[in-house]
Specification:
Elements (H helix, E strand, L loop, with lengths): L4 E6 L7 H14 L4 E5 L7 H4 L10 H5 L5 H4 L1 E2 L6 E5 L11 H13 L4 E5 L6 H7 L4 E6 L3 H16 L4 E9 L1 H5 L6 H8 L3 E6 L2 H9 L11 H13 L5 E3 L9 E3 L7
Parallel strand pairs: 1-5, 1-6, 2-4, 2-5, 6-7, 7-8
Antiparallel strand pairs: 3-4, 9-10
Helix pairs in contact: 1-11
The chain binds adenosine-5'-diphosphate and magnesium ion.
The site of magnesium ion has 4 residues, from helix 1.
Function: ATPase required for the correct placement of the division site.
GO cellular component, one term: cytoplasmic side of plasma membrane
GO molecular function: ATP binding; ATP hydrolysis activity
């Protein structure tokens, strides 16, 4: 059996798409046949449960496990659509947060002992205790940024912190890309962002109102019958993450053949 992968989804800046990315990559990887656990490591502001439509099913959090109030399997919420996808929330709103780095490592070890092959940790915004806890069990990281200078600067800072904490396997996901604005030189291209940060690119996701619709419905984009371009882009990123695909979705030419070779992409 190959070793389980523990990946932290992080950004520094809030509101750039970490939770959206965690939900969609998690769901995609589960659909590709792997056993996946999503951990909502946000403190007091959890919302991964909402994106997955699982908000009414959470009885226990990781803090309840640590307090001896429940077992791990009681706090793991299984998705009804894909039973190989589970969600663990770290804490409830206003719940006392007394989690340490050692706790996080223990939790992940216990989850892997249950046969999970992927753990995706959805990081809180900022770089304080919640961030440090979320990155401590991780062997890999996915940095999410938008093509905006404030987000890129925070992504760069987080990249430095990850390296300082021994996480060298880092990939980049550029979210909320607008090809129309890139064409007019009003937005940095994905290639520019990638070169500024010097982190290998996992994927680029377009700005898409479907993201908001799917959030409100509690149904990740990648589950839609007719995939939107953002859904295709997330699925593509998931396939790349598991090493199945070497193509990027071309956000500029969605109707002229969806997939293009790496070298040809995002040329503008
Ligand atoms: N590609 C996108 N297109 C349109 N809206 C997006 C996109 N990605 C994220 N959003 C919206 O941005 C907001 C923040 O996303 P979220 O995933 O919660 O970010 P974070 O977890 O980093 O704070 C949400 O309202 C979400 O619906
Ligand atoms: Mg979030």
């Amino acid at each position: 059996m190959t070793e389980a992968r523990i990946i932290v989804v992080t950004s520094g800046k809030g509101g750039v798409g970490k939770t959206t990315t965690s939900a969609n990559l998690g769901m995609s990887i589960a659909r590709l046949g792997y056993k996946v656990c999503l951990i909502d490591a946000d403190i007091g502001l959890r919302n991964l449960d909402l994106l997955l439509g699982l908000e009414n099913r959470i009885l226990y959090t990781a803090i309840d496990i640590l307090d001896g109030e429940c077992r791990l399997d009681q706090a793991l919420i299984r998705d009804k659509r894909w039973k190989n996808l589970s969600l663990l929330s770290m804490s409830r709103n206003r719940q006392r947060y007394n989690v340490t780095r050692a706790h996080m490592v223990q939790l992940c070890e216990a989850i892997i002992a249950l046969g999970y092959q992927f753990i995706l940790l959805d990081c809180p915004a900022g770089i304080d205790v919640g961030f440090i806890n979320a990155i401590s069990p991780a062997k890999e990281a996915l940095i999410v940024t938008t093509p905006e200078i404030t987000s890129i600067r925070d992504a760069d800072r987080v990249a430095g912190l990850l390296e300082a904490n021994g996480i060298y396997n880092v990939k980049l996901l550029v979210n909320r890309v607008r090809p129309d604005m890139i064409q007019k030189n009003d937005m940095m291209s994905v290639k520019d962002v990638q070169e500024m940060l010097g982190i290998p690119l996992l994927g680029a996701i377009p700005e898409d109102p479907q993201v908001i619709i799917s959030t409100n419905r509690g149904e990740p984009l990648v589950l839609q019958k007719q995939l939107s371009l953002s859904g295709i882009a997330f699925e593509n990123a998931a396939r790349r993450l598991i090493g199945k695909q070497d193509y990027f979705v071309d956000l500029n030419n969605p109707h002229k053949g969806l997939f293009q070779k790496i070298g040809e992409m995002f040329g503008s």
